[in-house]
Amino acid sequence: xxxxxxxxxxxxxxxxxxxxxxxxxxxxxxxxxxxxxxxxxxxxxxxxxxxxxxxxxxxxxxxxxxxxxxxxxxxxxxxxxxxxxxxxxxxxxxxxxxxxxxxxxxxxxxxxxxxxxxxxxxxxxxxxxxxxxxxxxxxxxxxxxxxxxxxxxxxxxxxxxxxxxxxxxxxxxxxxxxxxxxxxxxxxxxxxxxxxxxxxxxxxxxxxxxxxxxxxxxxxxxxxxxxxxxxxxxxxxxxxxxxxxxxxxxxxxxxxxxxxxxxxxxxxxxxxxxxxxxxxxxxxxxxxxxxxxxxxxxxxxxxxxxxxxxxxxxxxxxxxxxxxxxxxxxxxxxxxxxxxxxxxxxxxxxxxxxxxxxxxxxxxxxxx
Amino acid sequence: xxxxxxxxxxxxxxxxxxxxxxxxxxxxxxxxxxxxxxxxxxxxxxxxxxxxxxxxxxxxxxxxxx
Lengths: 368, 66
Description:
The complex is a heterodimer. Chain A has helices at 2-30, 49-54, 73-78, 106-111, 114-118, 183-189, 244-250, 277-280, 312-322; strands at residues 33-34, 40-42, 64-66, 128-129, 133-135, 139-148, 151-160, 166-170, 176-177, 192-197, 207-211, 214-219, 225-229, 234-237, 252-257, 285-292, 295-301, 326-329, 338-340, 343-344, 357-362. Chain A is of the alpha+beta class. Chain A has 2 domains: 2-31; 115-362, no CATH class. In chain A, the strands form 5 sheets. Chain A has a 7-stranded antiparallel beta sheet, with helices on one face. Chain A is globular, with a radius of gyration of 22 Å. The A-B interface holds A 9-10, 12-14, 16-17, 20-21, 24, 27-29, 200, 203-206, 223, 258, 275-276, 278-279, 331, 333 and B 9-10, 13-15, 17-18, 21, 27-34, 36-39, 43.
């Protein structure tokens, strides 16, 4: 009789715990909750104010404009790139970035970074598309499907002349927790040529979130942070090394918190990761790689199916073999999705899932 | 008193079970931050209070036993 009573009580408690977990899940990550965020806007030092005003990227209501103090004043004032038209008719005259070299007059030509000239052969005067490539005056993308043993991965080799072509999208265009959308939808809404899932920032209230030049969150964690700057450089740093002041001074354009870093600071392969064996072992993965300003790659590895997935050390080796100098792991597992030409091209584990954000490559200037 | 004790027992078991689930989930996906978010911290606080109160009640009851 006593045994039965104990069992009954225990069963009751298990049921109550289950119910409490459902309520917890609702508040923790299911119910969408819009958040204010810091709303600090880091202005593009390579863009004229007029062009910035005309830019189509949405800013939060509480946005506070902050200049990127660390950038050269000459560049701030002289690098306007006057293009006609624009995405949705809203981006005409959008200023060029550090990576642009076709400013117009001699002074601007002198200001051009060597990057634009270095990759000049990658761009075309008009938009040229094939089944697996796209090139225009600002963007060059080549997508390939690669197989190595039991691992299938999709590699997007990306050149951008204007760093603002390297964008982020928030689900439902809203910063907060619990907001989710498919990568396909986010790509379509932002007219993206290429899209991959991001760091799923909405899963937690910790970490650094900078999207399209807006600092939404800057809570430092143990996780590595990946920062893409207006000058086209990308740096992966320990969470403890990130500061808002540095991000503003250096002109941060995007920052993600997931990780870990896949390459050492000198670009060498990492073999040890401070995570659980379950996380380190072979899984579907999404990651970004950086070669030099203007040249990046996105990699999505299929797993848990015909493709076995890839472990973090092997992913590190892959980026090293690709020639990247920095690489960063993003949300993986069922989230790993690559969208090219408006279609999912990989085989997402479990059919994939919606995410709170995406990384996009999209045109910011119209091209005939 | 016994009703309060019974309630505390249930609260402790429920909260403990929840945290066991959080810890297991955390092994699978630490980025979800199940263990160290605002709600979990309050739940952990409740678990500590409940456990402490239950222990005090238990000691008092034991002292009263003949």
